[in-house]
Amino acid sequence: MHASELFERLATGQVALLLDVRQPEEYGTGHVAGARNVPLDDLSGAVRGGELEEWRHRPVAVVCGSGKRSAQVGSFCAPCSRHCWHDRTEWP
User: Fold this and answer.
1) pTM score of the predicted model
2) Which of 54, 56, 63 minimizes the C-alpha distance to 35?
3) Nearest Cα residue to 15 out of 81, 74, 73
4) Do the Cβ atoms of 8 and 2 come closer than 8 Å?
5) What angle do CA 33, 37, 39 make, to 5 degrees?
6) pLDDT tens string 33-81
7) Which residues, including other chains, have CB under 8 Å from residue 44's CB and lie 6 or more apart?
8) Which domains does the chain have, with CATH numbers?
9) Using one digit for the tens of pLDDT, what is the confidence trace for 15-36?
């Protein structure tokens, strides 16, 4: 998904959560306003711990620095949520 489509979906409520799976240091260098930072290494525990339960059946966009980490999220989250993927390198 291109950045313009992601931002349009966020603005219109078609994406309920923007999940940034980068490390806190990366997130701290810049991120989309409203994005929730849960590093990929912590995501499985956050899902099991119920931290993301309110978004379980809602559209979630997952972003990272190159698209590799966000693509990995699908392996353990796809059964519980609908996802759209976005490679941060395409951001304007």
Assistant:
1) 0.79
2) 63
3) 81
4) no
5) 150
6) 889 999 999 988 998 899 988 888 888 888 888 778 887 886 656 545 4
7) 76
8) 3-90 (3.40.250.10)
9) 888 999 999 999 999 998 889 9
The pair of structure tokens assigned to 21 is 């799976």
Q: Which residue has the higher pLDDT, 92 or 51?
A: 51
Cα dihedral sign for 62, 22, 20, 32?
negative
pLDDT band of 92, cuts 50, 70, 90: very low
What DSSP state is assigned to residue 66? S
Q: The tokens 């997130």 sit on which residue?
A: 27
50: left (phi over 0), alpha (psi -120 to 50) or beta: left
User: Residue 33 burial (CB < 10 Å; 0-12/13-18/19+)?
Assistant: exposed
